[in-house]
Design a protein that fits this description.
Layout: H1 2-8, E1 12-14, H2 19-32, E2 38-41, H3 50-53, H4 58-61, E3 64-68, H5 79-88, H6 99-118, H7 124-131, E4 157-161, E5 163-168, E6 172-176, E7 184-188
Parallel strand pairs: 1-2, 2-3
Antiparallel strand pairs: 3-5, 4-7, 5-6
Helix pairs in contact: 1-2, 6-7
Amino acid sequence: MAADLKDRGVDLVFDAMDTHGNARLCEAMDAVGARVTAKVTNVQNWSATVPEDFKDSPSCRNALWVTGASRNYEDKDHPAVREFREAVKGRPQSQPPSQWQLEGWAAAMWFTDAAESCLPDLTRACVERFLNRPEPCTARGLLLPVSYEKSAAPPTTRHACLSVARWQDGRGWVTQGGEMTENCFDVPQLAYRP
C-alpha cells in the first residue's frame, strides 16, 4: 500500500485506523519514501503519545492531521481546557493527555448537568428530556454545539463546524483553521435511518 501511494504521487491520505495500524502504515510510508502533505487520521490518534507511537516515521508523523467536534486538548488558553487538564494532572491512573480523555470529560460534564437539572427526582426520563431539549450542549466550550433533534425529513444541507489540529514535533497538536466555532461550512446532510 505504501509503495502504491508513492507510485501514484498521493499527497493526501484519510484513514480510520487505530493507532497501531496508523503507526505501521506511517513506518511503511517513510521506508519507501512516500511523502504526503497530510495524513488525516481520527480522534483515537489525537494524543500525546504520538512521539512514541510514530517514533520510526518522522516524515509521516509530521504530516498527521486530525479532525473532530471537540476543542484541542492542547488549547491551554481556553478556560475549559485548563480546567480539564488541571483535573486530570497527576492522577496515577491517568494516561498522557488525549482527545478521548477530553471528550470523556465533556460527556461526564454533560451528564452531570443533566442529572443536576433533575434533582431531587433523578430518572432516566428526566435525563432524556434534558438531552432532547432544543438548547445545544457545548460542555463549557469543549464541544461544538451538540443537540439531538428529530425531524420528519432531514434537511438537505447543514451548517457544520470542525475542529482541526496538526502534529508538529516540539509543539504537539497545534490547532489549525482558527476557532472551531468559526471554522464552519454548509455541507450536504446525509439521511440516516436506524
